[in-house]
Amino acid sequence: MTTPNIPFRLTTPWQGSDPFLFAVFHNDAYPAGDADMGPGDHRPDGWQMYHGRKIPGFPAHPHRGFETITVVNSGFVDHTDSVGAAARYGQGDVQWLTTGGGVTHSEMFPLVNQDSDNPLELFQIWLNLPPEAKTVPPEFTMQWGEDIPVWHSPGGGTVKVIAGALGDVTPLSPPVNSWAADPANDVAVWLIDAPANSTIDLPAPSQATTHRTTYVFQGDAVIGEHAVAQGWGYLQVGTEPTTMTAGAEPVRALILQGVPIGAPVHQYGPFVATSQTELQDAFDEYRRTQFGGWPWPTTEEVFPREQGRFARFPDGSEQRPGQ
């Protein structure tokens, strides 16, 4: 575990603190897209194809026993999964997926702009599930950027409130089986934008055991009395408030907070369990059932270029921003 109250250098992926497993930060300078929404032969530095062949992204792969929270600040993600959900989301949207007993999904990054670059900036956060929720049915939820509330700091700056109430700002509801669904677990996911020379004062966590980790991914900050430079993090444990001060340049940071689940964590690749036996059961079930099979024509499914942001749920209902 990261040592509290001592800044630490961020690794890849970013280190998590219970109840969070880790977070991955993708910041890719994708070029203009070709007719297939891929980079074609134009391959400058500053981005990766990941496991995509024509289009960057992550073709169909399984998960079990935790939740993914995907925060897309710029660019787009095309999502398809084994329970029939689908979406194109981005430009401030958040997808929150409880994998529970098992789901296979694809996350592709279509380069929709043909006449300009396609920058992509996103976080994928892995939030653990408690033992009693490890095998709950999968749940697919969307938070449209227009609906996510923002807290305005009196000292300047804003906090995008994805989870965890902040002041008088109440977040949208998390999935029903999430560790975040019970306010007593003190879960928060906050995205901070602090202008140069501003100060953001965050209230103390509500529980003495709460872990609050700040990941500084742009600019240099001071948290309390500690300098926390870009590419560094800071973990607090307990009920101390947080004061973050930006220097001569703006600061952007992600805060992940929650009461620890406190259960054993056995992870192998995309599966998270509380024992080796449970982990083996997950592999056996995936080999046997493929977590419902794959109902899409390809494992790298993308939607037409002109397709706007949308979400289609397993029951066939659809939702778009503003609805």
From TrEMBL:
<dbReference type="Pfam" id="PF02678">
    <property type="entry name" value="Pirin"/>
</dbReference>
<feature type="domain" description="Pirin C-terminal">
    <location>
        <begin position="193"/>
        <end position="292"/>
    </location>
</feature>
<feature type="domain" description="Pirin N-terminal">
    <location>
        <begin position="51"/>
        <end position="127"/>
    </location>
</feature>
<dbReference type="InterPro" id="IPR003829">
    <property type="entry name" value="Pirin_N_dom"/>
</dbReference>
<dbReference type="Pfam" id="PF05726">
    <property type="entry name" value="Pirin_C"/>
</dbReference>
<comment type="similarity">
    <text>Belongs to the pirin family.</text>
</comment>
<dbReference type="InterPro" id="IPR012093">
    <property type="entry name" value="Pirin"/>
</dbReference>
<dbReference type="InterPro" id="IPR014710">
    <property type="entry name" value="RmlC-like_jellyroll"/>
</dbReference>
<protein>
    <submittedName>
        <fullName>Pirin family protein</fullName>
    </submittedName>
</protein>
<dbReference type="InterPro" id="IPR008778">
    <property type="entry name" value="Pirin_C_dom"/>
</dbReference>
<dbReference type="InterPro" id="IPR011051">
    <property type="entry name" value="RmlC_Cupin_sf"/>
</dbReference>
